[in-house]
Amino acid sequence: MSGNFNLIFLVVIMIVMFFMMNRSQKKQRSNRESMMSKLQPGAHVVTIGRLHGVVDSVNQTEKTFTLDADGVYLVFDLDAIARVIDDGVDQAVKPTKEATTTTETNVIDKTKTVLPKDENTEK
């Protein structure tokens, strides 16, 4: 009797694990689809090869996009996008005007001057 119970318990646990993993994958798939549907020119993206750039154009019929990486235009499949960087994150990375301005500071020179020992004082 306990052998049957252990077998049933094991099967129930496996079924629950299967449904939990399937639910997680479905959620990831829907998040990715919503990210791809919102993709438009001007969006900052990171590819699966960790190449950062700005989307120049999107071709939904061929499922490709053109990436502008500092003046170099590259064509990728839409599946090559690892993530889209939000505007809030992107603005936090940009240096502000205050951070780029330099200010003049006074530096105090604290170097020690070592004088040679006088041979007459040692005697």
Describe this structure in words.
The protein contains 3 helices and 5 strands. It has helices at 2-37, 87-93, 97-100, and strands at residues 44-47, 52-59, 64-69, 72-77, 81-85. With 123 residues, it is an alpha+beta fold. Mean pLDDT is 77; it is low at 88-106. The radius of gyration is 31 Å and the shape is flat. It has a 5-stranded antiparallel sheet. The protein has 2 domains: 1-37; 40-95, SH3 type barrels.
Could you outline the blueprint of secondary structure elements for this entry?
Elements: H1 2-37, E1 44-47, E2 52-59, E3 64-69, E4 72-77, E5 81-85, H2 87-93, H3 97-100
Antiparallel strand pairs: 1-2, 1-5, 2-3, 3-4
Helix content range of the residues, please? 25-40%
Low-confidence stretches: 88-106
Strand order of the largest sheet: 4-3-2-1-5
**What coarse outline follows from CA principal-axis ratios?**
flat
What would you report as the Rg, rounded to the nearest angstrom? Answer: 31 Å
The CATH top-level class label of the largest domain: Mainly Beta
Order of helices and strands: HEEEEEHH
Count of distinct structural domains: 2
The largest sheet, given as strand count, sense and whether it forms a barrel, is: 5 strands, antiparallel
Query: In whole angstroms, how far apart are the ends?
Result: 105 Å
**CATH architecture identity of the largest domain:** Roll
CATH topology of the largest domain: SH3 type barrels
Number of helices: 3
| Mean pLDDT figure | 77
Instruction: Tell me the fraction of residues in β-strands, as a range.
Output: 15-25%
Structural class of the secondary structure composition?
alpha+beta
Number of strands: 5
